């Protein structure tokens, strides 16, 4: 059984529609896939409506959080998106994303970068507008040659000339909100050093005490020594560990299924969510 618990569609910052993500997941040999777009559940129904035979969908989300001023991401699974407290926060996050993105584009133009806000919105295709969409518009406009070049201090990296900080949840609050909505949380890529998502053991211990269920250990951006350390830490804290591709379509080389989650960890996830397997969508 092959399980990938972290993927994105063009509802947020992936490049492919939810239905195509599902088709590609099955073609990649997956039996279970989670759709975890940033701060939105808008792709769930489209994905569930086009599930290929033999593929199960775990509804999820990647929540934007801040811990001591540093961006931290939490994967929430199998929760009720209509739960009022969580739903209100998701609206607030998405509204701020729009304001933030528009301000970044304005700063870019002040710096001489001919980036169009209308084109950024077209690339986003919805209400979840992020820096990857701005970076793609920068490439199209000839400001930079690659998306990676946009994420530098010259442009839109954290602390960069055109960077604006996000509105985000406190991660302890986010864990509580997801649990209150019947779901379970996994800490996303906590040692993705290339991307600047690096959190010490003490942060994971703090989140575990608040109700974190698992840690994403096998991730394309994790070095072998970090994976081993995270497994040992999770075992000591009673957390399960997951493996996921964090696929964003063409932006990440269409890597669905590159990293996978073991069946016992998947079963632990189902047990940690009060809705359990009843919320998993099947064709």
From TrEMBL:
Signal peptide: none annotated. Gene3D superfamilies: 1.10.150.650, Metal-dependent hydrolases. InterPro entries: PHP_dom, PHP_domain, Pol/His_phosphatase_N, Pol/histidinol_Pase-like. Residues 3-67 form the Polymerase/histidinol phosphatase N-terminal domain. It comes from the Bacteria. This is PHP domain-containing protein. It comes from Actinomadura vinacea.
